[in-house]
Structures are given as structure tokens and as C-alpha cells.
Specification:
heterodimer, A: mainly alpha, Non-ribosomal Peptide Synthetase Peptidyl Carrier Protein, Chain A, 5 helices, globular, B: alpha/beta, Rossmann fold, seven-stranded parallel beta sheet
């Protein structure tokens, strides 16, 4: 299984936003609502991570509801990837 | 094929011995309680017999039979039905209530979890229904079946794709079974809206608040509001058959 760094996941998150004409801020504390990163964008990012690692990531919705910032997204996926 | 037309004059009598799957908590427990209070005999199983269900059984030992059974374990459900009939008499009512929920977007739901949801919520109740109907038919009995489905069977909600598919499947099975049984049994579904308690974790507070705002009655459905409908379908003389009755305060209308 390929290990993905937090920085690489951040790159992928940037790609998801870039495809929609938006920009990922450098600040991990940036609010996802202001960035315009929605739940389906999160799904797309998770699937991109899966593609790179070859590992399927399954998770329930309640965990997602606690995600509010860019850093939360990265933390969630790093932790999920680690499990 | 032989004629499948109904025999007109014979009505389906009220159920007197009712099997309730998933009777240990929530709506299932409320149904068991209500039927016992109404003087019926009730056989109820669940994966775990909660203290609440055990207490109900203790209060009415002659009119109840409860045990710990996983609805997906066909042999165990068969044994339960035989034991329940040995204790209470022939079953003439079935409430398919046992189900597992879901709280995950479809693309992030493990394939094993999808299979488990379908097995528990669709395959198992179909098997249990088959088992009970076979016994009723073999003994020339008439009876009633109530499938507890969900508003998810008719309206879309995120995070509930597999769950909705199973509930829609049970709504569809309800209609076909009512046809197939030619009036010897009444087969209906009750489709509650979201409960304030159990389902709140599924949708999140924001979505629940939105549903409440859109509900003319101004509140989410409570189990106590569904129970009388189940009782009516099991007990009252109506010509309701093959229907899915929505109990959601018109949230979905």
C-alpha cells in the first residue's frame, strides 16, 4: 500500500478545487464554507486518495459533520489512511 | 396457472397472535407494548433482548414470548416461530420491523456493509414472511402482515442509499404479496418519517431542522404516532391491502 503524506493529500485537495476554478488557501484554518469545499468535493478527494494508495476508504457520515476547516479535511484523511 | 381471484365473502379476521421482529427498542418495542396492552399475544425477537422488552414479557408471561434471535439467521427464526406457536398458539399476524440503519455516502460505504443492510432489511424479512405465510396457508389460516418501511422508500435522502433501496424493496414486495395472497391475508406497509430520536444521527441537525420546517404538523414523527396505524392494520376491519401508509406529518407531500 502506498503511503500518502499530508502534503500530497493537500496537493490533491488543491486539484479538486482547481478543477472548479477555485483556489486552496495556504492556511489550514481556512473555513471550508468560505473555500467552497462541499461534501461531494470531499468524496472526490477521498476517491483520489484511494486511487493513489490502492486502498478503499470507507467511513460514516457523522465524522464528516465535524469537519469545518482545510486542516480538518487533511487530518481526517491522514487518520483514515493510517487505519 | 390456476385462478388467483379472491374468495369474496370471507374477511381476514383481526390478528390475535402477532410476531414482531426487532421488538427490543424504539418503534418495535412500542409496537410490542401496544399490542400487549390491547390484549393480544405477542412473540418478539431481536438480536439482543433489552431489559425493557424482558420487562414487558415478565408482566404478561402467558401472552408473550421473547428471545434473542438474529433476523438473518434463518434456522434461528424458524426455531423461534415454532417455539412461539408452541407457547402462544398459531401466529396470525406478522410485523416486519427489524432493520439496520445506514449513515454513509454510497461511494464510501463498504461493500460488506451494503450486503449486510440488504440481508437484514430485505432478504431476512422476505424469508421470515415466507416462513410465516407458509405456516398460515398450510393450516388454512388468514392473517395480516405489516412491513415497517420508511419515507426513504419514496423520497431521496443522502447517506441512505442502500437503506432506501431495501425499504423501497419492501414497499414493492408488500404490493405484490397482497396480490399473490388473493385476499386471504392483508399485507400492508407503514412508512414513518424520520424519528426525532433514532434517525437524528443519520441526517444531522441541520437537515432535521429543515425537515421540521417543511412539515405542516411542525414536528418529527414519534413511535407513538406510528403504533396506532400498525394496530389498525392488524386489528381493524378495513379493506386496506397492498398499501404503504406514510406517517410523516405531510413532510413529504
Amino acid at each position: 500500500m502506498t503511503q500518502l503524506t499530508r502534503a500530497r493529500i493537500r496537493d490533491l485537495m488543491g486539484q479538486v478545487l482547481e478543477n472548479q476554478g477555485r483556489v486552496l488557501p495556504d492556511d489550514d484554518g481556512a473555513d471550508l464554507r468560505e473555500v467552497g469545499f462541499r461534501s461531494l468535493d470531499f468524496s472526490e478527494l477521498a476517491l483520489r486518495v484511494e486511487d493513489e494508495t490502492g486502498q478503499e476508504l470507507n467511513f460514516d457520515a457523522p465524522g464528516l459533520r465535524r469537519i469545518a476547516t482545510v486542516g480538518d479535511v487533511l487530518d481526517f484523511l491522514v487518520e483514515l489512511h493510517r487505519q | 396457472m390456476m385462478s388467483d381471484s379472491a374468495t369474496p365473502a370471507l374477511l381476514v379476521p383481526p390478528s390475535t397472535v402477532v410476531l414482531v421482529s426487532g421488538g427490543s427498542r424504539g418503534l418495535g418495542l412500542a409496537i410490542v407494548n401496544d399490542l400487549l396492552e390491547s390484549g393480544l399475544k405477542v412473540a418478539a425477537f431481536a438480536r439482543t433482548v433489552t431489559p425493557e422488552l424482558a420487562k414487558l414479557a415478565d408482566v404478561q408471561p402467558d401472552r408473550s414470548y421473547v428471545d434473542s434471535v438474529d433476523v438473518t439467521d434463518l434456522a434461528a427464526t424458524q426455531a423461534f416461530v415454532r417455539a412461539a406457536e408452541g407457547r402462544l398458539g398459531p401466529i396470525d399476524g406478522l410485523v416486519n420491523n427489524a432493520a439496520v440503519g445506514q449513515d454513509s455516502l454510497h461511494v464510501h460505504t463498504a461493500t460488506a456493509d451494503i450486503a449486510r443492510i440488504i440481508e437484514t432489511n430485505l432478504t431476512a424479512p422476505l424469508q421470515l414472511t415466507r416462513l410465516v405465510v407458509r405456516r398460515m396457508l398450510a393450516q388454512g389460516r388468514r392473517g395480516r402482515i405489516v412491513n415497517v418501511t420508511s419515507i426513504c422508500a419514496q423520497r431521496g435522502f443522502p447517506g441512505l442509499v442502500a437503506y432506501s433501496a431495501t425499504k423501497g424493496g419492501m414497499d414493492a414486495a408488500t404490493r405484490s404479496l397482497a396480490r399473490e395472497l388473493g385476499g386471504r391475508m392483508l399485507v400492508n406497509a407503514v412508512a414513518p418519517g424520520f424519528f426525532a430520536s433514532e434517525m437524528s444521527a443519520v441526517l444531522g441537525q441541520t437537515q432535521l431542522d429543515q425537515i421540521v420546517r417543511r412539515t405542516p404538523t411542525g414536528h418529527l414523527t414519534e413511535p407513538a404516532e406510528v403504533v396506532p396505524v400498525v394496530r389498525l392494520l392488524l386489528r381493524d376491519q378495513t379493506n386496506i391491502n397492498g398499501q404503504a401508509i406514510v406517517v410523516d406529518g405531510a413532510a413529504s407531500s
